[in-house]
Amino acid sequence: MTNAERNGGNEKSYAGSQKEESSFHRKGSHPKPSRPNKHHNINDELCYINVSGKQYITTFECLEKYPQTLLGSNDREKYWIPELKSYYFNRNRDCFERILTFYQTGRDYKTGAHVDMELYDEEREFFGLNRIDDDDSLSNPDTMLLIEEPSQNSAIKCYRNVWLPKRRRVHRFLMDPRSSIYATAWHVLDILFICLSITLLVLETDPSLTKYFTDKNEEAYYYLYYTNVFVIAFFSTDLLVRFLTWPNTLSFFPNMFNILDILSILPFYVSVIADTLDEHKVGADDGSHKTYVVLRVCRIFRIVRVFKFIRHSQDLIMIIKVVAHAKRELSLLVLLLGIFSMSFGSLMYYVEHAANPEQFSSIMQGCWWAIVTITTIGYGDISPVTWQGKIVGSVVLTLGIVFLALPMTIIVGKFSAVYENEKSNTSR
Q: Which residues are paired to 49 by β-bridges?
């Protein structure tokens, strides 16, 4: 596609436009994309880029200084929209303005808008800026130039020019297994440690193996104990480094995955403190009992280690996002289930209580029976014995199938639509 065709043959001159004045030239053997003929008017030299509805205008000469990037190569043509007469990208506009500034100046200037650095790294990878040779300023984070105000002292400049790029690189190493082969190896190691910790958790509950985890006189006790210590040390180090390299410290703790990681290692440290207090016999007997209860409660949180797998699976994360989008439909399902279980559970209690007081001893028992029946599970632990109760049971079973099937179709449709949308956004 020629530039004249791309711009629809528009013959208007662009007043006030100037050629890019830059001595920044590319070195290397990358083939340059086709340039417009010198006899074409100035509009043939302009490149129109639409980013999420906002129009940007630059020149092809400016972009093609970096032919190995997306905008500087012919790969951009697949994003050309004839109706808009521009290239269209459904990307973050703040990040794109910073990327466009790099094309224009050859340096990564810090723009006025706040840009999340993790998001900016993703946008930079999408537009292919990571493929620029090592002699360019943007490809090497340690030499990235961030233009700051002259009033800033050298300590602040050193912090922003040296520490911040390294921190972003470490953070990306821990969060993105696709960033490098070493990052992939680290994530595989993390998964292996998760499997090991879950295995120890399961084996500890086996009656025939419990003594090896609790009795210090057993030879295997210390092997298992120090294995668990090594696993917790690995998780703690990973969590601490992620906290130190997190782009915004205030947003670290509200993050669901960080909360799960904290809860997964918390029981170990609580048990260590409890054992230390017990050895020194701190407090009275009642205090020891309270410590034991707290310890039992905290050990329940070890189950959270299973959920650490979610962070390593994009599909599981996508499903969580889909559930969040479909919360209105799920709320409808829960509401219907609550109404039916309460109504028919109360009815069954009054119908069956006189003839079957052991099974239908309260309305709560009736609600349990209603939930099991509506969801078509049917444990059989509670069942009506009178003919009136059997009629009610038949009505509950029939209505349960009908009324649960109606919102379920809505939920499945919503789930499929949101899942496909999230999948397409992730693949971009």
A: 56, 87
Q: How many CA atoms lie within 13 A of 312 on its CB side?
A: 19
Q: What is the pLDDT, as a whole number, of residue 364?
A: 92
Q: Quick one: angle between helices 387-427 and 363-374, nearest 10?
A: 60
358/349 Cα distance (integer angstroms): 11
The CB-side HSE value for 369 (13 A sphere, CA atoms) comes to 27
pLDDT, tens only, 204-243:
888 888 888 888 888 888 899 899 899 999 999 999 998 9
* C-alpha–C-alpha distance, residues 71 and 84, integer Å: 17
List of residues 6+ apart from 388 with CB closer than 8 A = 351, 352
Beta bridge partners of 149: none
Q: Which residues partner with 57 through β-bridges?
A: 48
Give the closest residue to 73 by CA, choosing from 39, 117, 28.
28
Do β-strands 46-51 and 80-81 pair in parallel, antiparallel, or remain unpaired? unpaired
Mean pLDDT across the stretch 83-88? 89
**Where is pLDDT greater, at 242 or 313?**
242
Query: 88 φ, ψ to 5°?
Result: -115, 130
Would you place residue 25 in the very low, low, confident or very high pLDDT band (cuts 50, 70, 90)?
very low
Give the contacts of 353 (CB within 8 A, at least 6 positions apart): 360, 361
